[in-house]
Amino acid sequence: MNQGPSQPSSQGAIRPVERRKRIAIFGSTGSIGTQALDVIREHPDRFEVCILTAHSNHDLLIEQSIRFKPHTVVIVDERRYESVRDALMPHGIRVLAGVEALEEAAADDEYDMMLAAIVGFAGLKPTLRAIDNGKSIALANKETLVVAGDIVMQLAVARQVPIIPVDSEHSAIFQCLVGETRNRIEKVILTASGGPFLGRKPNYLVNIRKEHALRHPNWSMGAKISIDSATLMNKGLEMIEARWLFNIKPEQIQVVVHPQSIIHSMVQFEDGSIKAQMGLPDMKLPIQYAMAYPDRISNDFPRYDFTKSATLTFEPPDTKTFRNLALATDAMFRGGNAPAVLNAANEIAVYGFLRNKIGFLEMTDLIEKTMARIEFIPRPGLQDYFESDAAARNFAATLLDI
Ligand code: NAD
Ligand code: MG
Predict the structure, then answer these.
(1) Is the CB of 33 within 6 Å of ligand 1?
(2) Nearest residue CA, atom 20 of ligand 1?
(3) Facing residues of 88 across strands?
(4) Cα–Cα distance between 279 and 288 in angstroms, integer?
(5) What is the CATH number for 46?
């Protein structure tokens, strides 16, 4: 049996809404964070905002806070503290600053669910703290599970905390599993759009600049995940995310390129039957589903029309060209600290690419060299994950000369 804590168990009975769910948005100024606030604005009877956090966009954080009235906000960049404090003190809002303040806010009692929407490794510690604090997690930050999925999921089981995916593919899988608690998953089919360079070969990719890579055909997202989508690293990270979230083996995961992004992912059961979740690509839907689970809320998002749409197509990924997906698959099968090293090297590679320090294809070389260099730890503890992350980051940075 697959018995992760996030295995949906409700059989869909309509339940009255008891009281408003108190949401803490970690990473509220990002693509996911702002879309979550759009959803909350439409449903003031269901949700209230209790905590907002941002790295450095203080203007937007102030604007959001005045509008949604959280009791606490965190600005990570301490140079922005005074301006945020001066703007929000008159509204009776507690303002904290610095990296540690994220964990302090996560340990607060006064909220029900954390929307983990910080990008990268930086999201891991606050999310662990929220789980330890017994809070439900709506998980957008896939890097948390890539780095330390075994420990995160074990803690969630121990604290009986549901981890509900926001990533559209994982939300799709989660939705396919509603009502299937007794049934074993044979295979999870993760769909990938293929990104903006689908069908391209290395001779084309070598000249790609960040302006091209940031333009995704189907989704509008933050910079890091946009680059990850262009290199297919995003799909690699999502394989590892799925492995932990649904308690499945690496060999049970298959990636299929589906350029139209209408089927968000599928589950094949032991009888060979396949369930898919479909819809137009819009992150507001999985965000809303995670926040309202087990309810579905009516909305006016555009609907998919089978009679008007183009053909849906499927093909295998080109892992010879998009080698990041091969590296991630390898890291997933190796296990141990390999995914943490992969993730750290990738964060530095993307950082370097976004600052024009390395080319598109060189990102893969940097990750590969880092993975070859950092010592493999087969059964890491949490501290090993932190140390592997730091070691990989440092080594990758020396290759980049930063
Ligand atoms: P983004 O870059 O748009 O926003 C990131 C947020 O995190 C911002 O609020 C920023 O202030 C904050 N942040 C950045 N660095 C930080 C740090 N070091 N410490 C604390 N806060 C920090 O990113 P996004 O596109 O919203 O993605 C957020 C997460 O959700 C990522 O893990 C991404 O993989 C995942 N995700 C995003 C999408 C999408 O459509 N954008 C889809 C699926 C999954
Ligand atoms: Mg996704």
Answers:
(1) yes
(2) 55
(3) none
(4) 14
(5) 3.40.50.720
